[in-house]
Design goal:
With 150 residues, the protein is α+β, with helices and mostly antiparallel strands. It folds into two domains: 45 residues, no CATH class; 98 residues, Ribosomal protein S3 C-terminal domain, CATH 3.30.1140.32. It is built from four helices and six strands, in the order βααβααββββ. A four-stranded antiparallel sheet has the order 4-3-6-5, with helices on one face. Strands 1-2 form a two-stranded parallel ribbon. Helix 3 runs antiparallel to helix 4. The two termini are 26 Å apart.
Length: 150
């Protein structure tokens, strides 16, 4: 399990991790008292550079949109953070009723290059929906970190 802050997931003395294990066992209907039952093992791994992870950036942007943060400022800050973290390119796409507009539209933010047609390009992609007061706003994130050399 890749997380940006493993200390939050683990909790004090592993208490949060144990609660997460119990919830997973309950969800998967695993009875730990049965002799040959499956066992749930969780090992949270820290993402070394969370500003180069498309999923974390998408999470952050949807959270900001849901808390009525100005989308243009959030997007520009995200682009700057990603580029400062060493990415070669970033592209953000917002679609829907942005800022509660009556007519839905698509807004794109791009810096650097995103070679989507190059197979060896290492592009991290994520998409999420933010539930705002006026409806859903889709957020798509592409982060290009370089080519995969074999």
């Amino acid at each position: 399990m890749n997380v940006s802050r493993p200390g939050v997931v683990i909790g004090r003395g592993g208490s949060s991790l144990e609660l997460l294990k119990k919830d997973l066992e309950k969800l998967l209907k695993i009875n730990p008292k049965v002799k040959n039952a499956m066992k749930v093992n969780l090992h949270p791994l820290e993402i070394k550079n969370p500003d180069n992870s498309a999923h974390i950036i998408a999470d952050r942007l949807t959270n900001q949109l849901e808390h009525r943060y100005p989308f243009r400022r959030a997007a520009n800050q995200a682009v700057e953070k990603v580029m400062a973290a060493g990415a070669k390119g970033v592209k953000l796409v917002f679609s829907g009723r942005i800022d509660g507009a009556e007519i839905a539209r698509v807004e794109k933010f791009k810096q650097g290059r995103i070679p989507t047609q190059t197979l060896r390009a290492n592009i991290d992609y994520a998409e999420k929906k933010a539930l705002t007061r006026s409806g859903y706003v889709g957020v798509k994130v592409w982060i290009y970190t370089g080519d995969i050399i074999r």
